[in-house]
Amino acid sequence: MSKDLKILSSDSYLELNKDQSQHFSADNREHEKLLKESCTLYVGNLSICTSEEQIFELFSRCGDIRNVFMGLDKLKKTPCGFCFVEYYNRADAENAMWFLNGTILDDHTIHTE
């Protein structure tokens, strides 16, 4: 169960990621190491009606959650179908990635990375 958590591939994140990469001071190996130690999980294909509370309820089944960061539309400041779930430890994040990927929430099949 040592599959690495993947980087989000949505266009909005790629723009952010490119900007951050320009400011990332460590080499690529250090960047990869940090990704492998990450306790943060990307959750995609959420309904725009899915609440933070629903995310907490579902994802806390896999471990204690430190934070949930809901993706918001830049202009409207409304949910836009993705979030990040941060766990206290990597094992819980990996369990959530494996066990909750494909779960139906608000009539949407969610995707975890």
From TrEMBL:
Its main location: nucleus. Residues 39-113 form the RRM domain. It comes from the Eukaryota. GO terms for molecular function: RNA cap binding. It is found in: Nucleus. Keywords: mRNA processing, mRNA splicing, Nucleus, RNA-binding. Pfam families: RRM_1. GO terms for cellular component: nuclear cap binding complex; nucleus. Transmembrane segments: none annotated. GO terms for biological process: mRNA cis splicing, via spliceosome. Component of the cap-binding complex (CBC), which binds co-transcriptionally to the 5' cap of pre-mRNAs and is involved in various processes such as pre-mRNA splicing, translation regulation, nonsense-mediated mRNA decay, RNA-mediated gene silencing (RNAi) by microRNAs (miRNAs) and mRNA export. The CBC complex is involved in mRNA export from the nucleus, leading to the recruitment of the mRNA export machinery to the 5' end of mRNA and to mRNA export in a 5' to 3' direction through the nuclear pore. Belongs to the RRM NCBP2 family. Component of the nuclear cap-binding complex (CBC), a heterodimer composed of ncbp1/cbp80 and ncbp2/cbp20 that interacts with m7GpppG-capped RNA. This is Nuclear cap-binding protein subunit 2.
